[in-house]
Amino acid sequence: MTLTAEDGVTLWTERTGEGAPVILCHGGPGLWDTLDDVARLLADRGAAVHRWDQRGCGRSERRGPYSVARSVADLDAVRRHFGLDAVTLLGHSWGARLALHYTLAHPERVTRLVYVSGTGIGPDSGWHPEFVGNLRAAIGERLPRWEELRSLERRTEAEEREMCVLQWSADFAGPDRERALRRAERMATPWFGVNRVCNAEINAETATMSEHQLHAACGGLRMPVVIVDGEQDIRPRDAVDSLEQSLPVVTRVTLTGAGHMPWVESPEAFAAAAAPR
């Protein structure tokens, strides 16, 4: 199923399940929806789950402009397309940031925000160096190959996919790196290609946002927010502390033995935290 945003860009969407409406916001920026398992978990617990590929990504039309405001407007187009008055928003990684921005812009349209594996409202410089060290350690013996691919001025689609699989393998917890690679391969199948322009433009914009202003804005939210962390996420979880402290109605759930995709290692605990109330 597709919808057309008000500026004519076509967005891929899908709906599964019956019950309380939930819209999922995938990570990136520049990636596509890989939240099949999340959709299944929530649909099994009485949710109507609405998914979409953000503009320029995956099965959606590869055309900008790319910005936080444009992403918020596209998310609202998804809500309107399905005829939803108010929804639970679940965002993962960058999608958690997008869901937060949408909630700040349209609080009357969000009944509950589930903020999964996000990186908070502070500058990336506060957490990124530690993340890079953790990433390199988690890639392990395949680090030289990842560095080789990363250093290429131009990569084929096969090389781009290989590099992403190696990098994404670090997002899964546990010592079994072969299993982590298999899980990353599953994420990359089917492969739609990373939109590097989208990634660069949105990341550049979020890097200039004021933590102080976001902190103050979050203080005005009155709907419940659930922050879900994987204990072994390679992104430092203390980066989310200032967001948690700014929210008036917040619950934080840390899942033991889980990484950046906590529904993979702790599906039941994740579903208990994220499912509609």
UniProtKB/TrEMBL annotation:
Cytoplasm among keywords: no
Spans through the membrane: none
Keywords attached to this entry: Hydrolase
Pfam families documented for this protein: Abhydrolase_1
InterPro entries (UniProt xref): AB_hydrolase_1 (IPR000073), AB_hydrolase_fold (IPR029058), AB_hydrolase_sf (IPR050266), Peptidase_S33 (IPR002410)
Domain AB hydrolase-1: 21-265
Coiled-coil ranges per UniProt: none
Presence of the UniProt keyword Transmembrane in the record: no
Family the entry assigns: Belongs to the peptidase S33 family.
Name of the protein described by the UniProt record: AB hydrolase-1 domain-containing protein
Organism this protein belongs to: Streptomyces chryseus
